[in-house]
Amino acid sequence: MVVKLNARAFDHAKKLVKERQVVLDDRDEWSEHRPSAEEENRYLEQHGFAEYRKWYLGEDDEQNEENKGRYKFPYGDFEKVHRCGVLSAESRAGQYKHTDIEVAVAHVHGMLEELS
């Protein structure tokens, strides 16, 4: 499994933060705010994979582009960037040594901190 930075998602996250489409929540709230499998499926049905992939900062390039398992490191709820999701992604990227993703998420984290 080779997980790489999803540049489209990184650009999307930065754009949303610049537009202040954010939730400045606490780290521990991600388990409550993260979209459920049902919400993911509903979003996919309505928007397709081209939009779905914008919400995941990592991609496993060994998986098919139209497989949910390809997309890693979610950071929002399909509407807004959640600080708790960014913090979770940053921590997990560091833990699994996905340096390119960790650096990108740290950048988004810094942008969020400037808003608070």
Automatic annotation (TrEMBL):
This is Uncharacterized protein. The lineage of its organism: Bacteria, Bacillati, Actinomycetota, Actinomycetes, Kitasatosporales.
